[in-house]
Design brief:
Distance between the termini: 90 Å
Strand content: 35-45%
Helix content: 25-40%
Largest sheet: 6 strands, antiparallel, barrel
Shape: elongated
CATH topology of the largest domain: conserved putative lor/sdh protein from methanococcus maripaludis s2 fold
Structural class: alpha+beta
Number of strands: 21
Radius of gyration: 44 Å
């Protein structure tokens, strides 16, 4: 009896073990096989944006018109007619030199011209009677013209005794005082028209051809109290500097409020627009053994789509891949995705997002760009 009991116990244990194996295999087959269960997800329409590269540089400014004023001739200063920082207009006399000799030279030239003119007029009236030879009349005419030229020369010499503003602008400081003797090598002062500034900066040669005159760039001063300003590129250097492999670019900045000064340095930010790529939220981008991929939705079924990361932005990633025919992607719920899984999402929400973006971008309803 004891032997029969032991045999029955062994049979019962084996039956229980085989039944468990059968249940396990059936469960595995059920998990691995196809399912009709619909997986809820959060989806978004596929958007497209241009890749952007930001170039930063340090630029130095100068006035749109700038000049260092020097006397044309040597002489003694008799008057300084400006204060440092004063606004002057074109033609204003800034500094006067002793001009007594030049004034006398002008008076003498006038007298000689009047005398030569009287002699020529007398010869001209007598020429018809034959009392004056033609050669004498020609000599009188030449003497009159020479006297006129001498008068003009005397006037120019007198004008050179005054240093004038050559354009409207602000004058700088001066080390010249009345009584000083100056020469053409001495700088009297500076003159700047700072209604706008020219900011020069260098760009690496790798970006040659990606900037054009008229492009807008962002300029920031190093002072926290001054806001950033926009500038427009007006010219681009014609050669590459072999020392640093860069070319010089100049931008014009309006300064109607006179808040900026020539010589200031600026932090230059220039944005370059590149090719157009799909942009997805960071939560939609996944990584596998073969690289990055996303889950695209076509006819309520998901498909694993390999992509290449182009550029990362705040909360978004620009990707490239075979996205033809894809207009919706899985944003949340990606952990439960497999090829061919049927998904359920708020189509009305996706449609509204697509319509709103399309209206603002004016693009294709199936694909839109937030920055076009």
């Amino acid at each position: 009896m004891q032997t029969i009991s032991i045999r029955l116990t062994v049979i019962a244990v084996m039956a229980a073990f085989l039944g468990g194996c059968s249940d396990t295999n059936g469960g595995a087959q059920s998990a691995a096989g196809p399912t009709d269960r619909v997986v809820p997800i959060i989806a978004e329409p596929l958007a497209f944006e241009h890749a952007r590269t930001t170039i930063e540089a340090v630029g130095t400014s100068r006035a749109i018109l700038s000049a260092e004023l020097h006397p044309a001739t040597a002489g003694e200063v008799v008057a300084v007619n400006f204060e440092p920082g004063q606004f002057v207009e074109k033609g204003d006399v800034l500094v006067e030199l002793d001009s007594r000799e030049e004034k006398l030279a002008v008076e003498l030239a006038k007298i000689r011209l009047e005398d030569a003119k009287r002699l020529y007029d007398r010869y001209l009236r007598s020429a018809d009677s034959g009392a004056v030879l033609p050669t004498a009349l020609d000599a009188a005419r030449t003497a009159m013209e020479a006297a006129r030229v001498e008068l003009q020369q005397a006037k120019i010499s007198l004008a050179d005794r005054s240093i004038r503003a050559v354009f409207d602008g602000h004058v700088g400081a001066s080390e010249v005082d009345p009584g000083d003797r100056v020469s053409p090598e001495v700088m009297i002062t500076t003159l700047d028209n700072r209604s706008s500034l020219l900011v020069s900066f260098e760009i690496p040669e790798a970006y040659l051809g990606q900037f054009e005159a008229g492009d807008t760039i962002r300029l920031e001063t190093w002072s926290a109290s001054m806001p950033a300003v926009d500038g427009k590129i007006i010219d681009i250097g014609s050669r590459i500097d072999p020392r640093n492999r860069a070319f010089v670019t100049r931008a014009r900045v309006e300064n109607s409020d006179d808040a900026l000064r020539p010589g200031m340095s600026f932090r230059v930010n220039a944005s370059l627009e590149g090719a157009r790529y799909a942009v997805v939220p960071e939560t939609a981008l996944l990584w596998g053994a073969e690289g990055a991929y996303i889950w695209s939705v076509v006819d309520a079924e998901v498909t694993r789509t390999p992509v290449q990361v182009i550029q990362r932005r705040e909360g978004r990633v620009l990707v490239d891949g075979n996205l033809d025919g894809v207009d919706t992607i899985v944003v949340e719920g990606t952990q439960r995705m497999r090829n061919g899984v049927t998904v359920d999402y708020d189509k009305q929400r996706v449609a509204k997002a697509r319509s709103k973006a399309t209206a603002s971008a004016g693009g294709d309803p199936g694909r839109y760009s937030e920055n076009d």
